[in-house]
Write a structure and sequence with these properties.
2 copies of one chain form a homodimer.
Chain A (H helix, E strand, L loop, with lengths): L1 E3 L5 H8 L3 H7 L1 E5 L1 H9 L4 E6 L1 H7 L9 E4 L1 H8 L7 E6 L14 E6 L4 H13 L4 E4 L9 H7 L7 E4 L2 H10 L4 E4 L6 E2 L9 E6 L7 H4 L4 E4 L11 H12 L4
Parallel strand pairs in A: 1-4, 3-4, 6-7, 6-11, 7-8, 9-11, 9-12, 10-12
Antiparallel strand pairs in A: 2-5, 3-5
Helix pairs in contact in A: 1-5, 6-7, 6-10
Keywords (chains A, B): Methyltransferase, Transferase
InterPro entries (chains A, B): Alpha/beta_knot_MTases, MRM3-like_sub_bind, Ribosomal_eL30-like_sf, rRNA_Methyltransferase, SpoU_MeTrfase, SpoU_subst-bd, tRNA_m1G_MTases_N
Pfam families (chains A, B): MRM3-like_sub_bind (PF22435), SpoU_methylase (PF00588)
Chain lengths: 257, 257
């Protein structure tokens, strides 16, 4: 097995570049950090390009890595460099980005979450994890939403990208297609002129749009929805964190499923 | 007005120390970063020790700062140093930590959130903000929970510390006192042997305990509760983020309030 001890090694440089969107687009791959995620990728039969681990981690896990995957032993220094953090677990994988094209014209059922310009990577990852937990079929990231395969989003998703569809898409096209196919599309607003969410009964198939942390959903999307609702606030806080609001709405709407 | 241009200035050094728990405990003060929080503190009549702002921010806001508060003009460099981030807004305040002692023996009503060893500052801050939004009366941080006045928690609270009680406390003592005073105390577990949360009806007064991100609530607390419940998950995610779980539970229980 090749041992890599220097951050100047060309492979290390290319792994470190996967922290950027440009690097991921050029290679069509992204990084998993930690055994939990690597294990989820193995279970999901993801396409592996490499496994990199410190000697300790390699010893603990090499037997579980699929045959034929190139394995590299790395130093603790290299592990920190790839992770971009000071305390990585010491095991990584480089796997393919999902290559799926997905046409919403063929979506006739399931629960779907549409993210409109949500910028914080932690929020995006937590929302995908929550959609998975609530039994959603997929999450569609519109233009302006944080990239789903950046290190911070990947950390917050905790492997949920292997359990549901995580897609880029034109939200306007998605909303039109789902509405044509008979799925109600719900928007969420900060505006108390909208409907309190408790008035919407759980349904089997639908789409829910969540909007930007500060500005909310784009007006052009709000106009296309079947209903727009808000979460009534009893206290003095002006708003909820978007991931918390999403959790409340998803678990309310999905309750019947 | 004194102008401060160097990070070596003794005042700057003491403000930077407020990023640590030790620094805050020694001074009995903490920092607010950004006009939104400073404004919330003014509205709440917090005890100000200083306002620090770049010339631009000072010009925009000095008129709104209470009379008699020492004001310091700082350079952009000093602002970054105090903030510990690269893009601060450029206005800060140093205010007193809440000095309140709070005896749960005298708590007979309201909704209370008890945080047991929740470590991530973003989760703690978001939970306090969510409790505020749901109309809770206070949040009690048990031993091992992230300090409520660290910069990351303060950022995530978004000023909610001025709207409800944010207290340190011995959770075991709180649970005993509230139960004696007739408030049901609900625990949350990851364990599906607990009760699904939908079976608990909204009530007017109660306490809700949320536990550590990985381990959940301490067993010694779980034994003292009126009921322990969990959020049934339909998908493959193993768990929810604790702030999302807290949001779902708080808004379910508080619905009647």
């Amino acid at each position: 097995m090749e041992r890599i001890l220097s951050n100047q090694n060309s492979r290390v440089k290319s792994w470190a570049k996967l922290a950027t969107r440009k690097g991921r687009q050029e290679n069509r791959t992204y990084l998993l950090d930690g055994w939990h995620l690597v294990q989820e990728a193995i279970k999901a039969s993801a396409k592996f390009h490499a496994v990199m681990a410190t000697s300790e981690q390699m010893e603990a896990h090499l037997a579980d890595v699929p045959h034929g995957v190139p394995a590299f032993e790395i130093s603790a220094e290299v592990a920190k460099h790839i992770a971009g953090t000071n305390t990585p677990q010491g095991i990584f994988a480089e796997i393919s980005l999902p290559e799926k094209t997905f046409d919403p014209s063929y979506v006739f059922d399931g629960m779907w979450l549409l993210l409109d310009q949500i910028q914080d990577p932690g929020n995006v990852g937590t929302l995908i994890r929550t959609a998975d937990a609530a039994g959603f079929k997929g999450v569609v990231l519109g233009e302006g939403t944080a990239d789903a395969f950046s290190p911070k989003v990947v950390r917050a998703m905790q492997g949920s990208q292997f359990h549901l569809e995580v897609l880029q898409g034109d939200l306007s096209h998605w909303v039109d297609s789902l509405a044509t196919n008979g799925l109600p599309v719900y928007g969420s607003e900060l505006n108390p002129a909208a409907q309190p969410f408790q008035e919407i009964m759980p349904v089997e198939k639908f789409a829910l749009i969540l909007g930007n942390e500060g500005q909310g959903m784009q007006a052009q999307l709000a106009e296309k929805t079947s209903a727009n609702f808000y979460i009534p606030l009893a206290g003095q806080a002006e708003s909820l964190n978007v991931a918390v609001a999403g959790g409340i709405l998803m678990f309310h709407l999905a309750l019947g499923n």
